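Table S2 (continued). Query chain:
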Amino acid sequence: MRGMVTRRAVLRSLLGGGGALALGGGVGVAQGYRFGVTRHTRALPGLRAPLRAAFLTDLHYGLFIGDGSVGAWVEATNDLRADVILLGGDLLDARLDAVPPGLLRQLARLRAPLGTFSVWGNHDYGSFGRYGARHYGPARPDWMARRERFAQELAGAGVTVLRDEGRPLRDDVWVGGTDDLWFGKPDAAAALAGAGARATLLVTHNPDLLPALPRPVGLVLCGHTHGGQVRLPLLGAPMVPSAFGQRYAMGWVTGAHDTPAYVSRGLGLSGLPVRNLCEPEVTLLQLSPP
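Corresponding output:
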């Protein structure tokens, strides 16, 4: 799969760089389950009143993540009193026939007056059965029907999935979301259609879409990379699942048309149940008029 990190590749990089010492004694596992809140203040063109947006991405509910982790993330998010909550995809990471009831219960607890919105990520598509793997089992011919059923179940929990579409949050701000870059057909133009003169927020799982943005966007929010998930002193991340290497690994970056974007380190775990020097994060964006 394009750019996908394997357990073997990560382990080989860690051992070659002395990372085994950094992860010894369960330290890497412990770091995988501690998280923090990162806060960012930024002006958003077109905004007429302040907006607080919470961004959570890469929950990866399933293999290494369960109700306890998601519940803690939900509580921390609700404490931020955000106006809107945005989820950056890879909600699921499990072989399953329906969205797990535990995940739905936890997501239903999210509270934001302007709503909760999500996009799909590549691991969501594995959970639908779009592709086969040891973790997900064989590909399923009914994966599209399963995707729609999952979207309906999430809607029942108060989470609206945006797949190449958008919504007005207020008279002055529009939120759009694209399909996954690896296994969907992302259309940023469709996600932003109807925005007009409003301030624009675009959520897309994979930051590799940034160079292909069809027009300027006020702010793009991405996940997928986990910041590399394992970072080594001085060396950074041995592996980043991006065609652009370290360029979009994490933090503030720039896309086409000088569009600002934030790439979150995410919350869950993929490949290996460890992190190092790469704390999981809930992101609060305090946006203001220019």
